[in-house]
Amino acid sequence: MTSPTLRAVVVGESLKAGSLPTASAGMEDRRYRSRLGDQTEIEIIELTVPVEQAAALALELSAVLKPRFFYAHLCVRVWDRDVRESGYPPMTVYPAATPDDQLPPGDVLDKPSARLVLQWPERTPAGALSLSTAGGQRA
C-alpha cells in the first residue's frame, strides 16, 4: 500500500529567488507554462508530497514566497485524482460587504476586497440553504 500524498501546486513567479525550497527535493512532477487571465504568463510547478513531509514543506514554502500576488497550495490527493480533470466549481464573486443572507448556498471564502462563493456539486446539493437560512453555518 502506498503512503498518502498531497498535491502541491506552486506558481514559479511567486518564489522570491525563483527556486523551490530544499524540503521539496525529489517531489517535483512537472513544470509548465500557463496564463492568469488573458495577459499574465506564469509557470506552474506541481509536486507530489508525502503526507508526513507536508508540514515541513509548507513551512519552507511560506518562507520563500513573495508576500503578494501569486501563491502555492497543498491539496488532498483525492482532489487531484477525482476532481482535477472534471473542472472547477462555479465561483461567484460578491463585494466584501455583502451580507450572508444575500449569498447563495456554497462554501464562502472571505477576502479583504470580496466574498467568493464556490459551489462544488457534491457539497452543494439542490435546494441547499443560504447562509442566513442555515443560521450562518458555513461548510
What does this structure look like?
This protein has 139 residues and is α+β, with helices and mostly antiparallel strands. The chain is built from two helices and seven strands, in the order βββαβαβββ. The chain has two domains: 5-86, Alpha-Beta Plaits (2-Layer Sandwich); 88-131, no CATH class. Strand 2 and strand 3 (40-50) form a beta hairpin.
Which helices and strands, and how do they pair?
Elements lengths: L4 E7 L16 E9 L3 E11 H14 L7 E5 H6 L8 E5 L11 E4 L3 E5 L21
Antiparallel strand pairs: 1-3, 1-4, 2-3, 5-7, 6-7
Q: Determine the fraction of residues in helical runs and give it as a percent range.
A: 10-25%
Strand content: 25-35%
As residue ranges, the low-confidence spans are 130-139
Seen as an oligomer or otherwise, the chain set is: single chain
User: What would the average pLDDT be, to the nearest integer?
Assistant: 77
Q: What is the global morphology?
A: globular
